[in-house]
Every structure is written in C-alpha cells, then in structure tokens.
Amino acid sequence: MEQVKVYYDHVGNTITVWLGDPKEEHLCEEIGDDVILMKDKAGKVIGFEKINFKVPAEEQMRIAFEAVHE
Questions:
Q1: Which residues contact 18 (CB under 8 A, 6 or more apart)?
Q2: pTM of the full predicted structure?
Q3: Total domain count for the chain?
C-alpha cells in the first residue's frame, strides 16, 4: 500500500508532503513560489515542501486525497 505522509510545522510555517521514503532524499530543488522538491538519486520527486505556509490558529487544516486509476 502506498502512503503519503504530511507534516505541518506551525513554528517554522512549513508543510512537507512525502510521496516516497524520506530516507531516499538525495537532492532538493527550489522551484519558486516557496516550493522545494525533494528528489531521489534517479531524480524522481519523492516529496515537496511549501515554506511560509501558515494555518491561522482559529482554523483547522483539512487534507483530502483523491486516487486516480489509469
């Protein structure tokens, strides 16, 4: 079963989403708009991070996923 891991750091104001194993991270690339891609040795994106991301204290963060089968 595939897993997606989401980490929200309310102190550092970042949200990190891992699509693969974080231990496989080899390279990070900032692509603009405060988004950083984490890649493995083969160059495959295994995660991304959004910096300067903040959820107001009075709100809840809701995350929804949709699976697409091709």
A1: 4, 5, 6, 7, 38, 46, 47
A2: 0.85
A3: 1
Own/partner pairs, 3-9, CB within 8 angstroms, 24+ separation? 4/65, 6/63, 8/53, 8/55, 8/61
pLDDT at 70 over 70: yes
Host domain of residue 70: 1-70
* Burial class of residue 47, CB neighbours in 10 A (0-12, 13-18, 19+): buried
DSSP 5-58: EEEEETTTTEEEEESS-GGG--EEEEEETTEEEEE-TT--EEEEEEES----TT
**CA triple 61-66-70, angle to 5 deg:** 160
Question: How buried is 38 (Cβ within 10 angstroms: 0-12 exposed, 13-18 middle, 19+ buried)?
Answer: buried
